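Subject: mismatched residue count in predicted assembly?

I count 632 residues in my input, but I want to confirm that the predicted structure covers every chain. Input:
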Amino acid sequence: MITLTSNDHGGGLDAAANQYGGDRAEWIDLSTGINPLPYPTGEISPQAWTALPDNNARAALINAARRFWNVPASAAVLATPGASAPIAMIPRLAAAGQVHIAAPTYNEHASAFIANGWQPANPPKQAQAQVVVHPNNPDGRLFSASDLHAPLRIIDESFCDVAPDASLIAQSNTKGTLILKSFGKFWGLAGLRLGFVIGDPEHVAALEQMLGPWPVAGPALEIGTRALCDPDWATQTRSRLARDAARLDTLAQQGGATLVGGTTLFRLFEVDDAAQWQDRLARHHIWSRVFPYNPKWLRLGLPAPDAWHRIEAALA
Amino acid sequence: MITLTSNDHGGGLDAAANQYGGDRAEWIDLSTGINPLPYPTGEISPQAWTALPDNNARAALINAARRFWNVPASAAVLATPGASAPIAMIPRLAAAGQVHIAAPTYNEHASAFIANGWQPANPPKQAQAQVVVHPNNPDGRLFSASDLHAPLRIIDESFCDVAPDASLIAQSNTKGTLILKSFGKFWGLAGLRLGFVIGDPEHVAALEQMLGPWPVAGPALEIGTRALCDPDWATQTRSRLARDAARLDTLAQQGGATLVGGTTLFRLFEVDDAAQWQDRLARHHIWSRVFPYNPKWLRLGLPAPDAWHRIEAALA
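Triage response: the counts match. Full output below for your records.
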């Protein structure tokens, strides 16, 4: 049995390697939804490491983000050290009340609201805050503007860059709305710790103050700016992820799994016994994601190009 | 007139270059207390950028920090995205009351407390929270354990690694005490965004929750661990900084300045008219620090080895 610290985040590859053996580096980690072919970090200027990140570098990143996501002019944009930091802070933007979180979903939202004194609510129309993960993790469910009712509305688009047409970015100029973006998934740079909060200027200003000055590292400003100014990479990556997701579906279905949903960064399957599937894959040193609330759900991220033969062997 | 955004942070080199001309890269920035010969960032593993920072990498950094700073076993240690993030969050660790901040000092402490509803207090014995910057910025003043009275005590040791014998780290196992460390000054890696909070386990756990999971980037974990396991670099750097500080003192004194104090990362001088000195240096494309509350104080950081001739020419 793998014990994870605090929340069930997936990941936990260290623990898996400890239990099943093998060097961590030799494991294939499909337990996340991180693009296995990341945006190339490229050259980093020496002053990105040594100087306090300056206003010009920050402005360049924010401008690139506005263009890449077609942010409405009246919405504010704040770069953050990953999406996790604003997720932890957002519950303090309003007095604690009832929050509706479209479940099941990524569990940090509920943790953060509960830690700040909020109560989970159902149905959404009675809540003072509402969270949708769009598309949802793990099932890929999409939402629309008409699903959003609460005065404080969080739209977590950490996985939406594979499907830009589905983005609810046009809602970011609606009062009380905050949209989250992440560099950890589509760009494959989870260790970079770069995310964005886009929306209601008053809330964004409050989050900026909670984070303190210089929240984002110099290298993240540089790499993020380059990536957001590179729409060709984004287009090619979307095509590749779509092809690879279809290939993974075929393999899993041949092995007896049924596709439930997902995005092209992760696929959610229904199987007879997810724990057994996880164990079988782990014996091949492939780490997968199971869910404490549904013993039949197995989530698989996409492998790197050189890892397909091992996925095929494990699922055969 | 240079206009700085929000707080007067020093820095503002972009604005200076805009006013006085010259390419930003060609300016010598003495407005900060950042070591101009940073710890070498070295090779960064690809997974530091791509994977969520794992528990093993975080544990390695924390263990290195414990050894480097001789942290008492009962004190907790948390790595943070710079020292600014915990400075912004610390005022929420207790109900807003009166805070005593030994002044004049780094202004983010007062800003954060005031933004969270605290009132500045004098004298310290009546305050519910107390902040000392140790050694103090800009004058280098040192404090002792007997100066600390309030239930919540913050010791900001961002500049203390040049004088490890002066550290109050032994106080970090005292209830209500938090000691801050920074990688931006002594190690010269301000863009890395790496800092530490060391002290009362209950407060440290609360800050950890406010920050959310994975607050520190993968490259910062790797570089920070290497640097904290390299005491030889630290020893050599302290010697070099001491020599260079003495050299800067001599030059400034020959130019008519009087040494007030400082650390070997920055020197505080009294001059007839600090704004005039700043202007004179800026015409040589050297940026310095003046203080709105004292028109005679000029603070200079240390130049890189290849910049001395320009400092000499400007001060001659």
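Chain A has a mean pLDDT of 94. Marking this ticket as 'not a bug'.
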